[in-house]
Amino acid sequence: MAEHQGDLLHYAEDYPLQPLVDDCRLLGSLLDDCLRIEVGDELFAKIERIRTLSDCAQQLNSAHDKDAGRYLAQKMAEELFALPLEEALPILRAYGHYLNLTSIAEQHHSVRTTRMDGVPVKTCDEVFHDLLESGISEEQLYQAVTSQHVEIVLTAHPTQVNRRTLQHKHTRIATLLAQNDRQDLTQEERDHAIEELIREICALWQTDELRRRKPTPLDEARGGLHIVDQSLWSSLPKLLRRVSASLKKHTGRELPIDACPIRFGSWMGGDRDGNPNVTAKTTLDVACLSRWMAADLYLKEVDALRFELSMNHASDEVLQMAHNSAHRQQGHAGDDRAAPSSVYRAVGSNGGGELAGSSSGHELLPQNSDLAFGDLQVDDMMSPPGVASPVGGPSSPRAAWPNTRGTSADALANALSKGSPRGVTPTSSNAALAAAQGVPAAAAAHKLKKLQTLPTFLSPAPSGAIPNQGLHRVDTSGHLMSPSSMKRRGLQAASFHKTSIDNLLHPRSAGANPYRVVLGEVRQRLVATRKRMEELLAGHVPDSDAEWYETEDQLLEPLLACYWSLWECGGGIIAEGRLLDLLRRIYCFGLSLMKLDLRQESGRHTDCLTEVTQHLGLGSYGEWEEGKRLAWLTAELRGNRPLIPPSMPFSADAKEVMDTLKVAATLGQQCLSAYVISMATRASDVLAVELLQREARFMVLNESQAAQRQRSVSPPLRVVPLFETLDDLTASCGIMRTLYSNEWYREHLAAVHNNRQEVMLGYSDSGKDAGRLAAAWALYKAQEELVAVCKEHGIQLTLFHGRGGTVGRGGGPMQLAILSQPPGSVEGRLRITEQGEMVQAKFGVPSVALRQLEVFSNSVLTATLQPPQPAKDASWRELMDEMSQVSCKAYRGVVFEDPTFISYFQHATPQEELGNLNIGSRPTRRKATGDVTSLRAIPWIFAWTQTRLVLPAWLGVGEALMAAASSGKRDVLRDMYEHWPFFQSLVDLIEMVMAKADMRIASLYDQILVEDGAERALGEVLRRRYADTVASVQMVTGHSRLCDNNPTLRRLIEMRNPHVDPINVMQVEILRRLRRQPDNQQLRDALLLTINGVAAGMRNTG
Fold this sequence. Notes:
Layout: H1 6-9, H2 18-39, H3 41-62, H4 66-81, H5 85-112, H6 124-133, H7 138-146, E1 149-155, H8 164-180, H9 187-205, H10 217-251, E2 262-266, H11 280-308, H12 316-330, E3 345-347, E4 363-365, H13 408-416, H14 430-437, H15 441-451, E5 473-474, E6 480-481, H16 483-499, H17 502-505, H18 514-537, H19 552-568, H20 572-589, E7 595-601, H21 602-615, H22 626-638, H23 652-667, E8 672-678, H24 683-706, E9 718-723, H25 726-740, H26 743-753, E10 756-762, H27 763-770, H28 772-792, E11 796-802, H29 814-818, E12 829-835, H30 837-843, H31 846-865, H32 874-895, H33 901-908, H34 911-914, H35 937-946, H36 957-966, H37 970-979, H38 981-996, H39 999-1009, H40 1013-1037, H41 1047-1076, H42 1081-1098
Parallel strand pairs: 1-2, 1-12, 2-7, 7-8, 8-9, 9-10, 10-11, 11-12
Antiparallel strand pairs: 3-4, 5-6
Helix pairs in contact: 2-3, 2-5, 2-9, 3-4, 3-5, 3-41, 4-41, 5-8, 5-41, 5-42, 6-10, 8-9, 10-11, 10-20, 10-31, 11-18, 11-20, 11-23, 12-18, 12-19, 13-14, 13-15, 16-19, 18-19, 19-20, 21-23, 21-24, 22-24, 23-24, 24-25, 25-28, 27-28, 28-32, 32-36, 36-40, 37-38, 38-40, 39-40, 39-41, 41-42
């Protein structure tokens, strides 16, 4: 049972399980029928016998008849050990498929329960209602939702053991289960659904589930992009529609078109930390692949829209676009990419080169207008689209009103002519508004008349982007229109076109389809974009004459024109369909679907700069103390001359660092998001990357000039320090304070990143370094301190949580994790990783993905508006400090100080064999050493999860809790558990993962695989410490059994174990044989089958 399942089921005592049991029986019986045919009755009888022995042994253990349970488990093990390999392989495959089918049924049931009455799963509608009931105002709710920024970053860590082919078949089976649930099916249709299930299950069995080669980083990137195509592409617009409908219901205002509560990022093809297979070329190829797939997906949507938008009434802007397009097609137009329409001019400059008004950086007003905007004073006066209203008006969240002066008449006239992008219409008449302000109607009318004196012609469409919702549009009569007023007119436009002389005044040619013409050109440019990416991937020089989409604004321009044209011409209901979904996809996915982060270890940057300083005769940068590094880096960053000579010879590693940064300078922010520095330990690590970024940009410019071609260079990426170890987390606040005290860095942060700072926290390595309890407390305190130091310096902080799938790597129910963060650490902005097999589990099925995205969004919203309670007493924090020290000492005493631990770990787990399996592109170790320090956190957790000991999740916890209880603080612990969300979530997660552990299975690994007496003794000690930890956790929670308050979880674990236990037993035997015959490919295949099976049973690997 996966930790992520708790997002949907967390402690739901009345969770209805019978439909799930029925689905499991259905899928199991269909697989049984398939196996009888595929493997024969004799082998199938063995499968049944072993499963029965496993089931009975578990039931006897649960009934406290340990001796009988031990006897049956021994009989099962003897039969499995005696199996020849040719029989063991199909039996392993069978149990693995049973578990995968159970997982599919659980996922489907988690979605089904959201439609059941009485199940405590809250939708966004219910969350909005609860927040308003708690005292949050409608304006606070609206602003929090529309300004929310959650980014889910998908990574390809080596824990996804299932092939993508199988993932696709699993999704198909989930779809068929949903179809079978329908109550309106005829018997014939139901029979057909069952037949389709039989076909899919038979196809599953006949498909090789093993990878025959290691995946490349490009393969992993394809897998991530496949998730977008498979589910996120359809799920995200549904979520935004749901949020918009709920927002309108509770606040009267819809979600702005450009609001993106959730976005997606990726590390696939950008994470080069310890992975030599990820190169600069890899990053470039993945970026091209992402843009190719984006163009392909948009192309399908545009083709559907061309079929749908068959109407011939259109705004003059769209007609002009169609006219220009037709001219270009006929070859009669020269350069039709004209300047922006002369009826617009930019206003609102703040004097610093930036425009304070709209989210696009400027707002447009008619030329020769002498109007100045005053502050609005009436609640139901709606602000212009994309501009935030100072007094509760509907608005886009991304901008503020220009700081200009004006009279009340100015403000009123402005209000009468404008509306929100997707908000409510005013309830008051114009006269009522005037009366409410005490403004003479004549004065308001005079100002309004000035607003409407615009030219009656339109020049060709602008070549640049139409600013999303900050564009005041002009109707066919030349009047200034806002989106809301346009929509109000659009509701009557259909009858207007039928009954007025509009057709005589604005004749259209018979059979003209202006929308199809405009979308036809969009289609051509998307095809050209896709072709360009194909040529780049093939290493060819792309056609420089073909028009392609370089920025998302270029794609938005014609689509927004079509959207508002439909509203103007009476087709608003059509605009709100597929076209609105497409616009929202563009705002959320951009032209790359998922922007890449680049990640590199800090030592690589230090080595690169050391080569530079030595080449220039400045000494060794790597040997300088921190003060000297900071002084030199700051001086260089303040200068304007390049530091690195063009002809400087680099080592291979340093050249790769610079090549990566040159690719970043070329690709820019259309494809890339952030540069993450892993193992950041000092402020100079951040400034070093800033300097290297600048040098790479100089190199790109010089190379483009030498080649006599123009190449644009993007602004530098934001640099994100990643604090991973316990010491680094403790020092993180001081490091950031040093950076903020650096004058150059503060100026850079303000000028380039709008005073926003992102900091990443590493859950995996901190847990491996100090144990779960000490790491969790260090992470909590680090967040508190980072929030404080950023507020002190006026900087907006975004925390990037590097969580894994398992509790040992910071995993667990997402809702529980977010709602237990320190107060003030979320505030509407959050980045978080989803790794390996959890990506498929959470986002592989569209209905599951929709629910998971809603959980993410709701949790961040709740944590923002109702922050979790901190420790109510200072003594609680002191006790956590004491327990953290005890826990860390106990953990390190085993993992780092016990001389037998490393050899025990290598013998008792499949850790050494993991490196030979085709699971991921990244090596299992950062460096070629045998200690735990160089071992990556993922295989560290992976190995212990396979043996069911799950050591990293609980080691050290029992000692800490018992030490606190021994000092007379047992009641304090229980009070903390009841009233402190952080401590409660920490204990609950540890309890949950311990419920999935099994010491019977763990001891079997020792008995068969560990020969040294001292190592066996260590294993026995660890199992006793597990028992002590169980007792200490139960002391705190008051439960008589693990997860006593979650019988659903216990039941789900019991449903899986009869299939997981035999796989573990066979894994032990296969490991024993493989260590004697390390080159036996059949045994390697069998081992990977067992790893797949245990991962399916535990619902996670690493």
